[in-house]
Design goal:
CATH superfamily: Class I glutamine amidotransferase (GATase) domain
Structural class: alpha/beta
Bound molecules: glutamine
Helix content: 25-40%
Mean pLDDT: 96
Order of helices and strands: EHEEHHEHEEEEEEEEHH
Strand content: 25-35%
CATH topology: Rossmann fold
Largest sheet: 6 strands, mixed
Distance between the termini: 43 Å
Strand order of the largest sheet: 2-1-3-4-12-11
Length: about 240
Amino acid sequence: MELKILHMYPDLLNLYGDRGNIIVLERRARWRGIKVEVLNFTRDREEDIENADIIFLGGGSDREQELIFSHMIKFRDILKDLIEENIVFLAICGGYQLLGDYYLDACGNKIDGLSILNFYTKAEKGRLIGNILIEVDLPIYPKTLVGFENHGGRTYHNYKSLGKVIKGYGNNGKDFTEGIIYKNLIGTYLHGPLLSKNPHLADYIIKKALERKYNVEIDLPKLNDKEEFWAHYRIMRRILKEGGR
Ligand code: GLN
């Protein structure tokens, strides 16, 4: 078996080590004997999106988002079609925001989104920064995800959220939702990188991508995740001890 991971705009969207998510997916697949090819999609090198089994879009500043939109809009229809055809897509923070209709930045500038999904983001007073713990409604165990968030934008949508905020802010610091799930697309504000302390989510993503590509049910062989889950629960305990939201 093999997987092609398309990393979109690695040169521009890579806040808080988001590139680490690619490394986790690559290693966890390779450790199971799955061949992995990572294609870096940039403004100068437009790799074939249709070839991808997993698409990854990291986080970035408002400025990078604006820069990327003017290039990424050319691929809006193919990305929307692939998402509708259940491609596995992971978008972090700014990358997540770009999939919506628009992002109103802190100066009131409207940064257009790809309108692949119908939601909006608007920056409000103060940034939502800190460690975050959420509980997800996905067929994974444990049901918790830990990460770090830092965003000015508050996202509002009516889709299924990735999870419920236990501690932290999430989509908007108001409705206790975090992220978005639509078919095999996951959007989230969790940086960290997300997958290094949440190996169970990484395996869910690999499994979904293989199942879609080979049209068979996949049961990934277990890995020794002692260190990964030590980190997961250590951060979880630290977050639960922290004051605040
Ligand atoms: N620029 C966006 C915001 O501030 C996203 C930031 C990020 O990707 N961490 O909300």
